[in-house]
Amino acid sequence: MKPSKNKCDVLVIGTGMAGMAAALFAAQKGLSTAHAGMTGAINFSSGLLDLLGVYPIGTQAGIWKNPWEGIEALVQDMPQHPFARISKSEIRESIDEFTAFLEKNGLSYTGYPDGNALVITPAGTVKPTFRVPLSMWKGVKAYEEKSPCLIADFRGIKAFSSRQIAETLKHEWPELRNARLSLPNLKADIYPKHLAQTMESPDMLEALIRELKPHIGNVKAVGLPALLGVCKTAQILSRLETELGTDIFEIPTIPPSVAGSRIRAAFEKGLSPLKIQPFYQKQVMGFQRLPDGNFLLDVGHTEKESQIQAKGIILASGRFFGKGLHADRKQIRESIFDLPVSQPQSRSKWHDPDFLAPAGHPVNLAGLETDEYFRPLGKGGKAAYENLFAAGSILAHQDWPRMKCGSGLAIATAYKAVKEMCAYI
Ligand SMILES: Cc1cc2nc3c(=O)[nH]c(=O)nc-3n(C[C@H](O)[C@H](O)[C@H](O)COP(=O)(O)OP(=O)(O)OC[C@H]3O[C@@H](n4cnc5c(N)ncnc54)[C@H](O)[C@@H]3O)c2cc1C
Predict the structure, then answer these.
(1) 205 shares its domain with 168
(2) pLDDT of 320-347, one tens digit each?
(3) Given the CA of residue 14, which atom of ligand 1 is nearest to it?
(4) Which is the closest atom of ligand 1 to the Cα of 49?
(5) Residue 184 and residue 204: Cα distance in Å, rounded?
(6) Do 308 and 231 reside in the same domain of the chain?
(7) What is the number of domains present in the chain?
(8) Residue 13 forms beta bridges with which residues?
(9) What pLDDT does 5 receive?
(10) Which residues of the chain have pLDDT under 70?
(11) What is d(CA 138, CA 28) in angstroms, rounded to the nearest whole number?
(12) Overall pTM surpassing 0.85 (yes/no)
């Protein structure tokens, strides 16, 4: 079959957090936008939107209550960090626009205007984050106030133990209890998303209320794994609160996470009216540069199905997990354009000898160097292409899992890259 031909102002490569955000920002600015990618890490993400939680990494003193102060300290020490190329007001605008879009599409987020909130994790620790799904917010308050609280899990589900959470937190939260509930027909191997869908059925909700009631006593809040529905979470929480007379909140689960896939669902709903040309579950397989500077890209699932002619590109193809970067035996390569990748000089220097090194490994900072406009640098140290911009975890000099800045970095760099591209197109 002959490949279809398509034209756009901008092709966003990647459907992870950075790619979704870039497609949104580009379409909102009126650019004709095409969007290609396989499933990104969003489905694995906890649903929390971190901005900056930890710096320097590997120290207790590095945990920031105020992420803006953390960013100031970070960019002073690491002027190559991507946050050093974005103003605070741009970062704030990007996150406000992103969360407003989610809100409009049925997914509410909240948080402190300028502060990080501490969210209970499935390990029983707490982590600093900037924007919290509304379904988790009452857990932030319960933890702050140390109010009488029950954490419950469901017999049969794996990798979420209310007992572990209560045991880990009880030294600082004496009025924290836990319970294990038996829900009908819960199979041990059920996928989290299926369980969350099952929770939307009236029978399951009745069973949950019945099981919880005897445990309520004097508790002011009940924490449950973030499996309370995929699209109807707000209704489920409201019904539980009315029936049980307590606050109810969700606790993030380990990946794959339903809270992460709620973000994807909100995007799928909200992006389609924006007339974005979708090339989902497809990858960019090759490119040419046309004499006028436009790119011509081959796109398909396993073989070339379409050609897209784009005036500009936002490259948000992620790191190793997303496949934007590829490590062979000698070096790390960028997968589509073969752009130079900033990396340790030899493979033997990729890792610290201590596997669990608190400060992480040098390879964690590998990625694309860019100019001040977020255009990846070519071999000569100048922008490789004047109309190619990069965003998200593919960028060098950031270690998002340790710095707790994953989604904030993805959203803010996508915002800035799109803004710079608008000035170009
Ligand atoms: C387990 C886990 C937990 C997380 N928890 C949090 C959290 O608590 N808080 C937080 O803020 N962030 C969290 N994140 C991080 C966040 O969700 C993002 O994953 C991260 O910011 C990186 O996003 P990204 O869009 O840059 O890359 P990715 O999500 O990796 O997306 C890369 C995209 O590029 C596409 N791609 C690659 N090559 C091609 C190609 N040739 N053609 C087309 N498309 C291509 C991929 O298919 C994919 O869609 C978590 C992530 C993970 C994995």
Answers:
(1) yes
(2) 999 999 999 889 999 999 999 999 988 8
(3) 34
(4) 11
(5) 7
(6) no
(7) 2
(8) 36, 315
(9) 87
(10) 40, 188-189
(11) 32
(12) yes
